[in-house]
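Table S2 (continued). Query chain:
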Amino acid sequence: EKCLTPHEALSQLYKYTKTQTGKFPEDVILALIRTLSVFPPGSLVELTDGSLGLVTSINIKAPTKPLVLISHFEGTRQEALAVDLAQEKNISIRRSLKPREVPPKVLEFLSPRRTSVFLQTEKENFPVVGHKP
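Corresponding output:
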């Protein structure tokens, strides 16, 4: 069976709400998307400048503009560049990626299974730290 990225799965669920075969009302799917985010932490993405990265934090007010850890082929993870897409006018997410679409060195550098994630809530002015298993 075809494996979907989180973005593809949410997009398909939303698309099905527009057909008569949809099993869930549109408001339920929209609530799910708002809860999970369009690009949940841990999502691998390609940016419009060609960079590959890992979503590390969602932006509740701008769900398509998360914080992304950009990959580098050299250097350490501590030297990685984190880009806040909400602050960038010329860079955005082009598409979500499946792990098999990412070169092994990049995948190893980003280590999506060992990434801490941060969620900014509307009521708090500080990040809530979580850990992706």
